[in-house]
Amino acid sequence: MMRTALAAALLLLAACTTANSTSPLPRTAPWRSEPLARASVPAVYVTQWQKAENRATCAMLAPRSVGEAGAGATPRAASFSGGWAVAYDLPDKRSAFGIAGAGVSAADPSYNKWPYAYEWGDGSKVEYGPEGGTGPNELAYLRIQGQDCLYNVWSGLGREHLELLIRELRIVE
Prior knowledge:
Elements: H1 2-15, H2 43-51, E1 61-63, E2 74-77, E3 84-90, E4 93-101, E5 116-119, E6 125-130, E7 138-143, E8 151-155, H3 159-168, E9 169-171
Antiparallel strand pairs: 1-9, 2-3, 3-4, 4-8, 5-6, 6-7, 7-8
């Protein structure tokens, strides 16, 4: 009985926060949920991803929802060398938020002094915080198990919105 409880506790810890996160991120990696159909995402995602040099190693991801703060935002193509990106513009804010499959490998060294970090049970990881260490925008580096690109997710609408975007990310078929 005690071994079973200990094993369950260890599994729970493995699926939860690794350092400093106060975010309400789910225990199961969101992109392991039901994929989105291509027809259900803005066409700019498909167009940008199809042009990307890294599409064979960097699955197309899109948020299932952009939340109340992102309601009415217009998606558009954004530049990410070697990869793909979609930025969302609000009437009063260009590039208010977005997602990119960067043209760099997830295994490459990158900035690692983020105040928030989270690891899912499937081995996927996210590190995030104020862009450039001070903000005002929030930026996340997302490494998805089985993909070889570093995903960037950003929001100029605050940390809560960034966390919402991460929770809503799904692979697009």
